[in-house]
Amino acid sequence: MPGPAARLIVLTGVTGLLIVLTSHASTDDISPGERRSGRDFMAPETQAIQADDTANPGMLWVLQGAGLWTQKAGPADQSCASCHGAAQASMRGVAARYPALDAATGKPIDLTGRIAQCRSERQGGTALPRDGDELLALTTFVAHQSRGMPIAPPDDARLTPFRDAGRQIFTTRMGQLDLACASCHDDNWNQRLAGSAVTQAHPTGYPLYRLEWQGIGSLQRRLRNCMIGVRAEPFATGSDDFIALELYLMQRAAGMEMETPGIRP
Amino acid sequence: MTKALVSVPKTARRGDIIDIRAMIAHPMETGYRMGPNGVEIPRRIITRFVCTYGGEEVFFAEFFPAVSANPFVSFSLIASASGTVGFEWTDDQGQTESASAEIVVT
């Protein structure tokens, strides 16, 4: 049994931690010069997996996506390539601009949503499940065409309210742990949470292959993970809240290099 | 649709040591995990990987449940003659997936 003095020290330690977590106002943005991709927080061995296309398992989904790109589907009997041609040219830089405004609904839509929309409305095919292998593969393939390009969020005033809503979500405390995204990713990104680097949460490599998942996953899957981590109820997949958050995150990472398919531990 | 990526140099000089890489999408389900409601997820793993060079077996590996999903194998060969480098993965249900690449040796 620790004596009263030892117990006091333990208590002070815990309180000290709580003070660190609560005293920050969660409003300090990371300055542009300080921004770092999640890649820079990884071990050199993991970085090497991402850098080498013959070792990067995310390339398996790029390969699958390339196959789906030319596969005809639906009553229209059209493939993606029937309209868009070679993705290497037509899809270059597209992912760097998403989420973008969907003129029909007046709301932002993310890349996965756009591909799903194209498939159900133009190809007339059966809707693909949002976190299913096929839609992930197509998204990865399209996003891969922008690899190496800077993230360039659209400069559209109609997106501003949604972006502000995304920022609001990012800085609002939620869940039983009462933490906002910003509590870790703006204020404590140079710390570690247990053994893992906290990182700055820049969505540069999505959809990416997480070694923990042993598969490829979307940004929304990652966000869901974080929300469960702070014991909050995750937003519904594909919901306006998630799209707004994605929109803000892409704005926050504007100018950073696209890495799809990224590798993360 | 098979998702396999193999890397073989397109050309090599006779006697060169060449780097071969092969990766395939596979769940490598160990059989030790429980699914929803405590139902066991049946084992489904690749058990054998074989590489042939000019029709002759030059490398094989046995895989076990500890091997991760989407297994990646890298090894070296000595370039001896032009021909096909073939790859074949066999899983515990007897299904096989294969891939191949051509190499020109001068």
TrEMBL record, chain A:
It comes from the Bacteria. Residues 64-151, 166-258 form the Cytochrome c domain. Signal peptide: none annotated. Keywords: Electron transport, Heme, Iron, Metal-binding, Periplasm, Signal, Transferase, Transport. Pfam families: SoxA-TsdA_cyt-c (PF21342). Gene3D superfamilies: Cytochrome c-like domain. It catalyses: S-sulfanyl-L-cysteinyl-[SoxY protein] + thiosulfate + 2 Fe(III)-[cytochrome c] = S-(2-sulfodisulfanyl)-L-cysteinyl-[SoxY protein] + 2 Fe(II)-[cytochrome c] + 2 H(+); L-cysteinyl-[SoxY protein] + thiosulfate + 2 Fe(III)-[cytochrome c] = S-sulfosulfanyl-L-cysteinyl-[SoxY protein] + 2 Fe(II)-[cytochrome c] + 2 H(+). Binds 1 heme group per subunit. It is found in: Periplasm. Its cofactor is heme. Coiled coil: none annotated. Its main location: periplasm. Its EC number is 2.8.5.2. Heterodimer of SoxA and SoxX. Belongs to the SoxA family. C-type monoheme cytochrome, which is part of the SoxAX cytochrome complex involved in sulfur oxidation. The SoxAX complex catalyzes the formation of a heterodisulfide bond between the conserved cysteine residue on a sulfur carrier SoxYZ complex subunit SoxY and thiosulfate or other inorganic sulfur substrates. This leads to the liberation of two electrons, which may be transferred from the SoxAX complex to another cytochrome c that then channels them into the respiratory electron transport chain. Some electrons may be used for reductive CO(2) fixation. This is SoxAX cytochrome complex subunit A.
TrEMBL record, chain B:
InterPro entries: Ig-like_fold (IPR013783), Ig_E-set (IPR014756), SoxZ (IPR030995), SoxZ_dom (IPR014880). It comes from the Bacteria. Residues 9-101 form the Sulphur oxidation protein SoxZ domain. This is Thiosulfate oxidation carrier complex protein SoxZ. The lineage of its organism: Bacteria, Pseudomonadati, Pseudomonadota, Alphaproteobacteria, Hyphomicrobiales. The gene is soxZ.
